[in-house]
Amino acid sequence: MRWDNLTDGPGTTANAGALFGAGSVVTRTFDTPEFRGITFHEIRARSVLNRVPGASRMPFEWTVNPYRGCSHACVYCFARKTHSYLDLDTGIGFDSQIVVKTNAPELLRRELASSRWTGAHIAMGTNVDCYQRAEGRYRLMPGIIEALTERANPFSILTKGTLILRDLPLLQQAADVADVGISVSVGFTDTALWRTVEPGTPSPAARLAAVRALTDAGIECGVLMAPVIPFLGDSPEQLRATVRAVAESGATSVTPLVLHLRPGAREWFTAWLRAHHPHLVERYERMYAGGSYAPTWYQRQITRQVHELAAEFGIGPSRQAAARRVAVLERPAEPAPAGPTQLSLL
Fold first, then answer.
1. What is the pTM of this model?
2. Of 14, 134, 2, which Cα lies nearest the Cα of 65?
3. Percent of the chain with pLDDT over 70
4. Which residue, of 16, 67, 88, 113, has the fewest CB within 10 Å?
């Protein structure tokens, strides 16, 4: 494993970009059913606030990621490439070798207190899920939310993890003093598809139940309908079932996002496709021949269908219970990766 380029340890030249000290990595395994086969690398990070690259189209400039790697094991996860920066495998290694920034809450509290910090919006869950299974043991998010609340700092969380409900009282307190945005990712409700492409996640039904619990508690929660998977989760019947379920959950918005396959994720997803749906490999090669994103016409087609279904099921501004919206997202041509920076979700 290559820690050297990310550390600044004894006997080395000072590295201003070091993420943690060379002697601060502790590796642990836990022989419990929920963590069997997973290795945790506990580190003392030097910084927890990450600036989003200037070329990103994200509406925020800063992120916090308490973990690297993700036991959700989604075969399409765009963040897989980040594991290669540590010489870790972007396939099974990404799913089972989890880096834990154990000092994330205290570090964030210190960074927010800096005179240089201006109170910008902070996004979480945009790289790997901050409510993956590891959070059940390490409990980093309560301290992170408390640090943000103390400074009335606006933030947002995107997750597939129902563990977020554990922190509902903290989220309510934060929402009293700052803008808080919560989104849950549910790309489809097909349980057979879920079991194969998102094997480490709570079921779509469980995630939508979490949306209902959040909205019932007064926390507005949108659904990122992501990914819409071509040829496997994009039939009119599947889209209708998903949007209907989202509407029934009380979500404040639904935002469709078509599958994108960046380097690192593309190879792993293609291997999965060959094993489970070999007849689709050539169709995917044609659809993604131009790069990581599906053709614009296809993205617009999916967006239009979701718009129409959202209107049919009452997810829109006309619904009196809440102001609701369906965002339109189109994928741009992507720049060549420049190095180990914070990746953007879109």
1. 0.85
2. 134
3. 82
4. 16
